[in-house]
Recover the amino acids of this structure.
């Protein structure tokens, strides 16, 4: 299974990506985790990414593409993967399409996590207080949501047209949302051997 979780910042993509990927026995590939690890290690890429992240802007496509395409070339993704945070722009969709076309296919499913703006702001402010995240001030959160609407939300229409999009309500307990995702995917969990 090759899939993507898409939704606004704070929709729960990171949490759900880990759980769903584990159910399917595939790796979860999170650009946010890749960027945060580079920031923590103070790598040159991490410092570049931090500047964008702290302003609520997306990391440019060329930096993001290089990291994700390298990850998709690794052996553990042969039987599938779950992407979280990539693609975020139409240009990245075409980059991913090109990469996947070389390995006989595209995405099997795109799960859109749906949640209202004010619920997201509340969630992310709580997370900021708990985790001390510098990229989660209210102004930055609202800017990130604007950027999502401008740059990433149009991908929903692309994947709907391709017939691979399913929408899931992202409000509720982590377990409830996980159950909704698995049900939307047909509930037929097949673990890789």
């Amino acid at each position: 299974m090759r899939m993507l979780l898409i939704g606004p910042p704070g929709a729960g993509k990171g949490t759900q990506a880990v759980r769903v990927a584990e159910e399917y026995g595939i790796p979860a590939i999170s650009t946010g985790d890749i960027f945060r690890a580079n920031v923590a290690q103070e790598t040159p890429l991490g410092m570049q990414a931090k500047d964008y992240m702290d302003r609520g802007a997306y990391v440019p496509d060329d930096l993001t593409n290089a990291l994700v395409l390298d990850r998709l070339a690794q052996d553990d993704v042969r039987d599938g993967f779950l992407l979280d945070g990539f693609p975020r722009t139409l240009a990245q969709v075409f980059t991913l399409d090109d990469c996947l076309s070389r390995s006989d296919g595209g995405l099997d499913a795109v799960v859109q996590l749906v949640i209202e703006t004010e619920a997201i702001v509340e969630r992310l402010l709580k997370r900021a207080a708990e985790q001390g995240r510098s990229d989660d001030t209210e102004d930055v959160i609202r800017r990130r949501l604007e950027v999502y609407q401008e740059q990433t939300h149009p991908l929903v229409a692309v994947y709907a047209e391709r017939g691979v999009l399913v929408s899931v309500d992202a409000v509720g307990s982590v377990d409830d949302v996980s159950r909704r995702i698995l049900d939307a995917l047909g509930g037929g969990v097949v673990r890789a051997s």
